[in-house]
Amino acid sequence: MRMKIEKRFYITKWQETFIILASIVLAFFSGAVVLHFLGVSPLEAYGMMIKGSLSDFYGISETVAKTIPLVMCSLAVALSFTMVIWNIGAEGQFVLGALACTALVRCMHIDNPLIMLGAMGIVAAIAGGLWGGFAGFLRAKWNVNEIITTLMMNYIAILLLQYFVYGSWRDPTSLGFPMTPLFPEGARLPQFFGTRIHAGIFFALVLVVVIWVVVRKGIWGYEIRVSGQNPKAADYAGIRSARNIMLVMFMSGAIAGLAGMAEMAGLHRRLQPGFAVGYGYTAIIIAWLARLHPVTIIFVSFLFGALFVGGENLQIAMRLPLSSVQILQGLILFFLLGGEFFRNYRISLTFKKR
Amino acid sequence: MVKMRGITKAFYGIKANDCVDFDLKGGEVHALLGENGAGKSTLMSVLCGLYHPDEGTIEVEGQRVEFRSPRDAISKGIGIVHQHFMLVPSLTVWENMILGSKDLPVVIDESAICDKIKDLSQRYGIDVDPKAPIWTLSIGEQQRVAILRMLYHEAKILILDEPTSVLTPQEIERLFSTIKHMKEEGYGIVFISHKLKEVFEISDRITVLRRGKVVGSLNAREATKEMLAEMMVGSSDTGEVQRARKESATKSKPVLMAEDLVVRNDKGLIAVDGVSFTLREGQIFGIAGVSGNGQGELAEALAGMRSIESGRLYFVTEDVTSASARHMVDLGVKYVPADRKGVGLVPNMNVAENVALRKYWHPPYSKGFFIDWDEVHKHSKSLVESYEILTPGLDVPVRMLSGGNQQKLILARELSDNLKLLIAMQPTWGLDVRATAFVREKLMSARAGGAAVLLISEDLDELLALSDELAVIYRGKIMGIIEGPGTGDIERIGLMMAGISANS
Question: pLDDT digit string (tens) for A161-193?
Fold first, then answer.
């Protein structure tokens, strides 16, 4: 028997889907092995996760609440990935958006919810945009690798957050907990049906449509796709790459920043260090899984939302550490990247009679 | 010396070699002839150990062999000189010689190696200085080093992959005399080419491949051009363009004027060094030269893709020295780059998206912030029809198209919508005979339509057949311009390609 590795010429949609599903199944399978060694029954654990996240109205509503920031962050990174600019910094841009809108609430409160929320959204988008745009500027001007700068800036953002909530912004009545006071009524996005699903869901859905239209139909979207696929052809088409790199990083950061604002005004209604639980990183996996397609991002985000909620349930019910859920996420990414190999190559086995 | 039987090798499930037999005797030059993609290089890569055949056997000197790597092949005396020589430019000649040698002593005896090199070079009339760094050598000299390297490693069988494609006519002559010399010494030589003329001049036996199969194997003496052409392409079209008689297009209106252009390459070195010429309506202006003498940089500068260091560029009366690529397109200056998939197309995007590449920013293809894809599709459809581009549809990624159809697509895009000047860089490189003829015909019809054409090519026959004026470029300088060039000028052109000025 001989094994041969050949480059694939063509891959059908069906094969592609199969590879992704197989990757996820394998990830859960190896996750089961990990769970087994943690001393719990994998079946029971997975059952608990599904029960917590998808089995009843409350669980689903919690999953949707987590889906909102995931969709927005995933759209943010997907936009930059379209140009093959690797914005790994959605987490930091998300935090910056939250910081900026909290600052606005603290120092300039306007007693009109529409204007107030509008202003919060704008400052959050600008703050996230500048945070991302700075990395874009470095890349465009001096070819500084944006993967490294965006990643590093995440740490700066999170430390900034801690500086404020442990410091001058801390609520004096919080009994020493690191958190700001609750936002006033006019700076809150409404929540629906007595659940934690908030109006940020409309931000997410509108953005899905806008990004789809801009990337598929728009001139700018075409330019970033060409730049991403073949930078030399972009020069040939007279596309100003440097400008587009800065712009795409700004837009990407702005979307993540807006997600941060929605999370603040819609869900937490106050700044606290625990609100940044890694949506910005998970978004990278989601965008990749969804093949950068905005509509697919909704579904994949929902699945990951369920994973988050199920993971919380797992922590509570089975007393497993948070890191066990992170291991599962890591495994999914690991198998997906492995699956990538099979998208590009195929292995054929030939049985030869001697 | 070599006996290959039933060699089959498939890529992507397509058979590049399908049950091919090939023999080589000592003291003969065996030419392997075929179009691009006929499977010549694959067959030879199998012979030199680069590929492992799916099926078939190889015998060397009557002994069955199985090569796992090129090193195995070299140890059996089989050496290949690739089109790109695979030498290390920063190392000297002798250092390159010993690269890949097994069992080198800890302390290398430089003088012994240099003596051996000198010895070999005297025997075969290949003179090189063993201590010269590779980058200081001309392409022809580098090729001699690559050949010598194989002799140094005691190769008895030498495979030359398209050895003439980078040489000036004089250098080709020199290479041929070396080959003849080696033949007399009993070497077996495989000469890969798709140029009929050269194959006739040098070879004793000719094997023709088409689509991975052997069409026939015959003695050079018995063959005729027409026979071989028919075997290569399946019809007796020799692919030579009939020169459309140039109606006296004397001194028509200038379209583009370059004055003392200086352009730098990506490394910041001067690649185009004070070039001046005038391109006129309804004329084809050819530029000949060995590749890497500044042609690419010149073409990019004219197309607005590379900044011009000094000098002036005028389009009719407008100064376009610092014009952008987009502005040049808007003026009607179109460009067919040499690297189709690397520059001219976005391989992963579909046909319509690639048609849009150089048009999308103005109406009717653009509408405000959006692209009118319906309009682009309509335009693409008419281009695909009128240029007979073979594609399963407009939504197919262009990487799925054959090289010929990719080139047709680029031409269709560039020649449509307001054409004033076409810059065509190596437009027929790597194309089969039919596609080559199609491209040349389109260049002629652009000329007939009143556009100026700048044709940059390494194929001298092509340039002679098509150009109204022919310039020769060497190290970024124009060595001379010949008006109405003909076959009688080959000698002169060859000298200029080697850097010897026409006047001296």
Answer: 999 999 888 888 878 788 888 899 889 999 998
DSSP A195: S
Task: Tell me the C-alpha distance between A328 and A311, whole Å.
Answer: 9
Of B282, B264, B290, nearest to B472 by C-alpha is B290
Taking only the tens place, the pLDDT of each residue in B19-60 is 899 989 888 999 988 876 678 888 888 898 888 888 899 998
Of B325, B345, B356, the CB nearest to A222: B356
Q: Do domains B2-233 and B252-332+420-504 have the same CATH topology?
A: yes
CATH architecture under which domain B2-233 falls: 3-Layer(aba) Sandwich (3.40)
Helix, strand, coil tally for chain B in percent (to 5): 35, 25, 40
Under a CB-based contact definition with an 8 Å cutoff, are residues A160 and A273 in contact? no
CA B79/CA B90 separation, integer angstroms: 23
pLDDT digits (tens, 9 = 90+) for A309-329: 988 888 888 888 878 778 877
Residue A110 · residue A187 · CB < 8 Å: no
ipTM of the complex: 0.83
pTM: 0.78
Q: Nearest residue of A to residue B401 by CA position?
A: A9
B325 Cβ under 8 Å from any chain A Cβ: yes
For chain B, the structural domain boundaries read 2-233, 252-332+420-504, 341-417
In sequence order, the 6+-apart residues with CB closer than 8 A to the CB of A120 are A101, A104, A105, A187, A261, A264, A265
The answer to whether B352 and A230 have CB atoms below 8 angstroms apart is no
d(CA B148, CA A206): 68
A262: Cβ–Cβ under 8 A, 6 or more apart, which residues?
A68, A69, A72, A189, A198, A199, A200, A203, A204
- What is the DSSP-derived secondary structure letter of residue B59? E
Which chain A residues have a beta carbon less than 8 Å from that of B323? none
Nearest to A204 by CA among A22, A4, A69, A30: A69
* Per-residue confidence (pLDDT) for residue B12, from 0 to 100: 63
What average pLDDT does the segment A135-152 reach?
96
pLDDT category, A352, cuts 50, 70, 90? low
- Closest Cα in chain B, distance from residue A228 (Å): 10
Residue B169's nearest CA partner among B502, B476, B496 is B496
How far lies A201's CA from each of A189, A206, A262, in Å? 10, 9, 9
What is the rounded CA–CA span in Å between residue B470 and residue B482?
5
User: Any idea what the Cα angle at residue B289 is, between residues B285 and B294, rounded to 5°?
Assistant: 90
**Chain B from 367 to 426: CB within 8 A of any A CB:** 369-371, 373, 400
Residue among B12, B325, B360 minimizing CB distance to A222? B360
Exposed, middle or buried, A14 (CB in 10 Å: 0-12/13-18/19+)?
exposed
> pLDDT tens-digit profile of B397-407?
998 888 889 99
- Given 3.90.1010, 1.10.3470, 3.30.70, 2.60.40, which CATH number is that of A70-319? 1.10.3470
Residues B449 and B435: their CA atoms lie apart, in Å, by 21
Asked if the C-beta of A143 comes within 8 angstroms of chain B's C-beta atoms, the answer is: no
Query: Do A126 and A100 touch, CB atoms closer than 8 A?
Result: yes
Tokens of B351: 């046909």
Helix axes A241-262 and A219-229, enclosed angle (nearest 10): 110
Superfamily of domain B252-332+420-504: P-loop containing nucleotide triphosphate hydrolases (3.40.50.300)
